[in-house]
Amino acid sequence: MVKLIPVFGTLVWVGAVVQIVLGFQVAADIEAYRGAHILIGIVGFVLVAGLAVVAFRSKSATIYSKLIIVILTVVVLLQVGLGFQLLGEAETLVAPHEVNALLIVILSLVMGGVTFMSSKKHNPGT
What digits encode the pLDDT tens for the residues 85-100? Predict the structure, then answer.
């Protein structure tokens, strides 16, 4: 059986990478990608929030994974907020929006590593 948490975590990471690519397309005034960029961002936030809920309900989640998912959730929420401000023509927020996107990719990779190490510790030999 496929464990859903690693799948959702992978979706968050892949979604963040896709968002960076789409974001550069939108920044280059390719308007056709704007709706997809917004939709993936909102779905990504929902996935991250869902992962946060699961992390806090799980007895096996470490304090490190809980801390990382809280930080990731706040960063993604900030990213969504920055994105909506950019829609309102706040051009000075482009650089923070791009840096935040890279931070999301890094945090999602760290989260995956921490989760992987924790699962190996709880389930040796798998």
Answer: 988 888 888 899 999 9
